[in-house]
Write a structure and sequence with these properties.
This protein is an alpha+beta fold. It has helices at residues 5-10, 22-36, 38-57, 60-71, 132-135, 181-184, 186-210, 217-252, 259-299, 306-316, 322-365, and strands spanning 76-79, 88-92, 95-99, 101-105, 113-119, 125-129, 138-140, 155-158, 162-164, 169-170. Helix 2 (22-36) packs antiparallel against helix 3 and helix 2 crosses helix 7. It binds flavin-adenine dinucleotide (FAD).
């Protein structure tokens, strides 16, 4: 798979895993990749994620090697989703053997530097950087007959018999699931999804205009609703970029921040990414429904792009634990309401005290 060199350059990050292009720049690049092709976007998102993980948790030597790998055009990825037999680590002195398989390993046939999560005996997760070109694990593409996202080549990869040395381990146990990066990182795939939404809106408008159907009031209204949904998605991405930028600033400012301020910024990152997931999924589903109505059955014939765009977007909308995400947003809502109630009752008792003081003053005048 060919990825635009400009996008590859935009994936660079600093030693804290913060994108050099800035949070908005990072999301714009992901959105652009998704617009070109959602499978390209999926692969690119994994590449960006892995480089940020190496940036944040890797050693200086690992960061340098990663930089060199990227310069040589090697693609990174993150393979976390488990198969029936999750990947485990069996330590033997200074060597670390892997046992088990990963499903949904996007770019299995061409990503050469995946971060593969593997469980230590106590169940904690370890990031392992597996040099696919050197160790050649067994790749099984036979079950890959997806509804969409075919070109992401998200196959099953078995790691049995592969051993790594300490240089192959990135960070320590549990680093992969640290917050706000783990939940908050979801903003990246919502940016790719937004690129897919944008493409579908563009192709629908083009299809209608080319057939002289753009003057029709109902089609105009449909396009209007699609554009509003697209812009809703974009506003959520902007909110995600702002929340991440605020967190980066709080985490880096040795004077102005307190742990509580940093914690609040981290919570905001998670809540905003969660909200973006829900809102952008809804925006995508609205756009898909309207696009299908707008182009009709004739528009769903290939080689027109709609069948593929819709199938890819429908497939890529399926991301981990959506029910848990909306339930977490619900908990944020309860916490916010409780904080509001506490603030209101503090205000009430404050103004009660003020009223009491005022009547004392009146009494003393009399
Ligand atoms: C094209 C594509 C490429 C991917 N590439 C990668 C990759 O490179 N690396 C990687 O790590 N992953 C990858 N994934 C996997 C992805 O990150 C998710 O893990 C996966 O999409 C979730 O699958 P699912 O919808 O079947 O999940 P499920 O978690 O099974 O969710 C399905 C439904 O069940 C609900 N649910 C979840 N858990 C429970 C429960 N315990 N009890 C009851 N209900 C539950 C969910 O809320 C949801 O409604 C990829 C996915 C896609 C679609």
């Amino acid at each position: 798979m060919k990825i635009d060199p400009q996008l590859i350059a935009a994936a660079q990050c600093d030693g804290d895993g913060v994108p050099l292009a800035g949070r908005r720049g990072e999301l714009a690049a992901l959105r652009r990749a998704g617009y070109v092709d959602l499978s390209v976007g999926r692969i690119y998102e994994g590449h960006v994620n892995a480089l940020q993980l190496v940036g944040r948790f890797g050693t200086a030597a690992q960061r340098e090697t990663a930089h060199d790998d990227v310069a040589h055009g090697r693609l990174f990825g993150v393979w976390n989703t488990q198969d029936d037999e999750p990947v485990r680590i069996v330590a033997d002195g200074a060597r670390f053997g892997l046992v088990g398989a990963k499903s949904w390993a996007s770019g299995a046939a061409f990503v050469t530097r995946p971060i593969v999560t593997a469980a230590w005996p106590d169940g904690s997760l370890q990031m392992c950087l597996v040099p696919m070109d050197a160790v050649a694990p067994a790749i099984d593409a036979s079950a890959w007959q997806p509804h969409g996202m075919h070109d992401s080549q998200s196959y099953l990869v078995a790691f049995d018999g592969i051993t790594l040395d300490a240089e192959g381990l990135v960070g320590g146990p549990g680093d992969y699931v640290r917050q706000p990066w783990f939940f908050g990182g979801a903003i990246r795939f919502t940016a790719v999804q937004t690129g897919g939404i944008e493409r579908l809106v563009y192709e629908t408008a083009r299809y209608l205009a080319e057939r002289g159907r753009d003057g029709d009031l109902v089609q105009n209204m449909r396009l209007g609703e699609m554009r509003v949904a697209l812009r809703t998605a974009q506003h959520w991405l902007d909110a995600g970029a702002d929340a991440w930028s605020a967190y980066d600033a709080a985490a880096r400012d040795p004077n102005a921040h307190t742990d509580a301020a940093r914690e609040r910024a981290a919570e905001d990152v998670v809540e905003t990414a969660d909200g973006a997931r829900i809102a952008i999924e809804r925006a995508a589903l609205e756009v898909i429904e309207r696009a299908m109505r707008a182009v009709g059955a004739r528009g769903l014939l290939e080689p027109l792009p709609f069948v593929r765009l819709v199938r890819d977007l429908e497939m890529y909308l399926r991301q981990p634990a959506p029910d848990a995400v909306i339930a977490r947003v619900g908990r944020f809502a309860f916490a916010a309401a409780s904080a509001q109630r506490s603030a209101a009752s503090a205000d009430d008792s404050g103004s009660g005290a003020t009223r009491a003081n005022a009547s004392d003053a009146q009494a003393s005048k009399r």
